[in-house]
Specification:
The complex is a heterodimer of chains A (about 100) and B (about 375).
Chain A: E1 2-4, H1 6-15, H2 20-32, H3 38-45, E2 49-53, E3 56-61, E4 66-73, E5 78-85, H4 93-96
Parallel strand pairs in A: 1-5
Antiparallel strand pairs in A: 2-3, 3-4, 4-5
Chain B: H1 11-24, H2 32-51, H3 59-70, H4 74-81, H5 84-91, H6 99-109, H7 113-116, H8 125-156, E1 173-176, E2 182-186, H9 196-206, H10 218-230, H11 241-250, H12 258-274, H13 277-287, E3 294-295, H14 297-305, H15 314-322, H16 327-330, H17 338-354, H18 360-368
Helix pairs in contact in B: 1-2, 4-5, 8-12, 9-15, 9-17, 11-12, 11-13, 15-17, 17-18
The chains are: A alpha+beta (about 100), B mainly alpha (about 375).
């Protein structure tokens, strides 16, 4: 799949080094993934993944206090990624830029 | 919306393209918007890949994250890898993932094999031991340096000055009895009156590294210490000529103790800093004790052989150099000493030849000479 929105992950890693190993591992796994439906996503990240809406998965990284919202378009093979603060539920995009 | 798609070169282009992707995300399949979304996705993904700062993740980090993300335990990992100890060692980075482990994990847990096959460093037990050993050694060395520094500071404070040694003249009269009769005397000799054979003999016998050290020799002291620990008799001092001079001139009368040894080393260093080697040799040869009431090479030469130092043979010079180690054990005026005195003299000659100070032939002929001198 193609992932867009990596810049926010980079910015967050720079701000919180302790989260970097997990986020790098997550990204690497997504970049190598060959998802064709939501079940594939759930199979790979079942413990932290929840389907918020059709084509929308939330990965909760509770240990780092963040969630990663994924918008998936399987037809194009595209994942739009956003970071969210688990406490406020808001996107951390603006703060991490 | 313009049909033209700009290449993404700046972060502003990137932000604009991302916003457009968000707008087009739900585009109907087969529509022009969907086509545009696909092109934008390619361009943005390429731009981000080129500007992405992330390094290749460590395989153990990937494994740990996969376990968290899939709700797996260490026992689950042990099941895949075949043993609990393997799982523990992999997670502690004490063991590399083998090709078969990677293949099993990739298949069972859907972890891309390429991520698990990346290179990473393992902490072998040997490496840990070496690291801990190096740290312990560094601490010991630092503590040792501190102890040595403190010891030298404490012992070095109240020592006699070496400043006057440059102009020091050895006294001719050393000891008088109760009625004022001279019982021990010295005949001071200038260095230019002492032939090279005598100097070579003393250097071979007492301090082979004399011209290279800075007053003391750690090697000689370590050798002497190990000899004293291992051998049941015959204590060694490991003192250089400079240390012996410091002891004779500046620390005379002090008992043979560790504290005197430390003072000797400190004073020897100071003497070497203030005097040339030749002057040190001259003072040493005039101060050294040769048994009985004899002090200095001039007196010993005259007493034992009836000659000035410049007239001594190599064998006689070697005999005099043999004396400082144990003057009263090797003195010629005690008949029972003669055998061991010759042994010691011959050892000095052999040492001179071994050090290249005389030829082996010269040593051989000198060893063949009788001791001579007093009988």
């Amino acid at each position: 799949v193609r992932i867009v929105g990596l810049k926010d992950i980079d910015a967050f890693c720079a701000r919180r080094r302790s989260a970097e190993p997990d986020l790098r591992a997550l990204l690497a796994m997504m970049l190598h993934a060959e998802w064709s439906n939501m079940s594939d996503v759930k199979r790979q990240f079942g413990e932290i993944a929840s389907v918020a809406a059709p084509g929308h998965v939330r990965l909760e990284l509770a240990q780092h206090g963040i969630a990663i919202d994924l918008n998936l378009n399987f037809r194009v093979g595209l994942v739009r990624l956003r970071l969210a603060d688990l406490k406020t539920g808001k996107e951390t995009l603006r703060r991490t830029r | 919306m313009s049909n033209f798609i700009k290449p993404i070169r700046t972060s502003a282009d990137h932000a604009a393209a991302l916003e457009e992707i968000d707008r087009l995300f739900g585009a109907a399949p087969g529509s022009p918007e969907m086509d545009r979304l696909e092109v934008l996705a390619v361009l943005v993904a390429e731009y981000e890949r080129a500007n992405h700062t992330g390094a290749v993740p460590d395989p153990v980090d990937v494994l740990n994250f996969a376990m968290t993300a899939q709700g797996r335990s260490q026992a689950d990992l042990a099941n895949v890898l075949g043993s609990r100890s393997r799982a523990t060692e992999v997670l502690k980075r004490q063991r590399k993932l083998s090709a078969s482990m990677i293949e099993k994990l990739s298949r069972a847990w859907n972890i891309p094999a390429a991520l698990l096959a990346a290179s990473y460093r393992v902490h072998s037990p040997l490496r840990r031991i070496v690291t801990k050993g190096a740290v312990a050694l560094a601490i010991i060395l630092a503590l040792g340096a501190g102890v040595v520094g403190t010891t030298f500071f404490v012992y070095g404070r109240d020592l006699p000055s070496t400043a006057n040694l440059a102009d020091y003249h050895s006294s001719a009269v050393i000891k008088m009895d109760d009625v004022g009769k001279v019982v021990a005397y010295r005949k001071p000799i200038a260095l230019n009156e002492i032939p090279p054979e005598i100097i070579k003999a003393f250097i071979a016998a007492e301090d082979q590294d004399f011209y290279n050290h800075a007053g003391y020799s750690l090697t000689a002291m370590a050798r002497a210490a190990s000899h004293n620990i291992l051998a049941s008799r015959g204590r060694q001092g490991g003192s250089t000529i400079t240390q012996q001079l410091a002891k004779n001139l500046l620390l005379s009368g002090q008992d043979r103790t560790m504290s005197r040894k430390i003072k000797e080393v400190i004073l020897a260093r100071r003497i070497e800093q203030s005097l040339p080697k030749e002057r040190i040799l001259e003072l040493y040869l005039n101060e050294i004790y040769f048994g009985g009431n004899l002090y200095g090479i001039g007196t010993a030469s005259f007493y034992y052989f009836g000659k000035e130092p410049r007239d001594l043979t190599v064998a006689e010079a070697a005999y005099l150099a043999a004396l400082p180690k144990a003057p009263n054990v090797y003195r010629l005026d005690v008949p029972e000493n003669r055998e061991r005195a010759k042994e010691r003299r011959d050892w000095v000659l052999a040492r001179m030849a071994a050090d290249g100070l005389i030829t082996a032939t010269a040593a051989h002929f000198a060893q063949a000479e009788p001791l001579g001198g007093l009988k």
